[in-house]
Amino acid sequence: MSSPDFYRHARAYDVAFGDRDFAAECDFLEWCLRAHGDALACAPVPDAQHSASPACGPRSFLELGCGPARHAREFARRGWSATGLDLSSDMLAYAADAACRDGLVLRTVAADMCDFELPAPVALAANLMESVTHLVTNEQVVAHLRAVARNLLPGGIFVLEMAHPAWLGRDTLPNTWTARDGDLEVDVLFGAADDPYDWFTQIWQVTSRLTVRQPGRPEHTIETHFPHRWYLAQEFRALIDLAGVYEAVWWYGDMRIPPTPLDSGEATDQMIVVLRKPSA
User: Domain of 213?
Assistant: First the structure.
């Protein structure tokens, strides 16, 4: 599900994709749990200094395809029991080191997000930053939805962040930007104009390129070509129905509080899906 070459350079990746308001996004995730969840079966985690043993409760969070685990680390900072799950051991080590430096308790799990078992279920799970695009078949998406449900408390909430379908086109390519952190500068390309797209499988072979510059070190470039699939709303609705493990779904067009309902208007720029596991 991930490319070892690209994701091995964890700090460069973190700088490249780290220009987001993670605290505000975690506020939104908390809002989703309060507004739509019913995961109150277990006693809450005591405080930010809780032990590293597994704990379930209404203040428990799982970040799927976590990479540097920015959201999980923010929840740990808030005193939640926080877990980051990823296939990349390099990303998990980077996330764990960052959490340790900040005095945070972060659990990390190296696993496939289509097939995993946590030591204890969580109240809130999230697949963010379009990480679901790494799942390129219907079967993988259904397996992912079911795996998350198995690891949620009854009444728990699962939030997915995807690109708004209106943005899925070549007219936005190439997608490039430059990011900086201290003396580290990263030029990013995520999607070239000539990346091949298969209209039958809906799979896009996406070029990802990080050009990393740092004083005193030679410039180096990491480039991969990896399959992604972006989903339309109605096909994802059908996959949720096919998974058969959620009792309710809400569709939003951003991560504001309260969020804008998902539609084709100019006010929406994301596709946010909120799912609830049955309470009984």
Answer: 167-228
For residue 260, the one-letter residue type is T
Residues 212 and 148 in one domain: no
Residue 15 φ then ψ, to 5°? -65, -45
Q: Which residues pair with 273 in a beta bridge?
A: 160, 251
Rounded Cα–Cα distance for residues 92 and 261 (Å):
34
Residues 3 and 226: their CA atoms lie apart, in Å, by 7
Handedness of CA 43, 49, 50, 56 (dihedral sign): positive
Q: Sign of torsion, CA 99 149 1 256?
A: negative
CATH number, domain with residue 11: 3.40.50.150
201 and 244, same domain (yes or no):
no
30 and 115 share one domain: yes
Instruction: Give the tens place of pLDDT for each residue, 72-116.
Output: 999 999 999 999 999 999 999 999 999 999 999 999 999 999 999
Q: What is the distance between the alpha carbons of residues 52 and 100, in angstroms, rounded to a whole number?
A: 12
Please, where are the H alpha helices in 78-196? 89-101, 138-150
* C-beta atoms surrounding 135 within 10 Å: 24
Strands (E), 77-133: 81-86, 106-110, 122-127
- Cα 101 to Cα 94, 96, 107, 186, distances in angstroms: 11, 9, 14, 23
Cα–Cα distance between 3 and 225 in angstroms, integer?
9
Closest CA to 78 of 57, 55, 48, 108: 48
- 192: CATH: 2.20.25
What is the number of structural domains in the chain?
A: 2
220 shares its domain with 249 = no
Supply the pTM of this predicted model. Answer: 0.91
215 and 235 assigned to the same domain: no
What pLDDT score was predicted for residue 39?
61
Phi then psi dihedrals of residue 65, to 5 deg = 55, 50
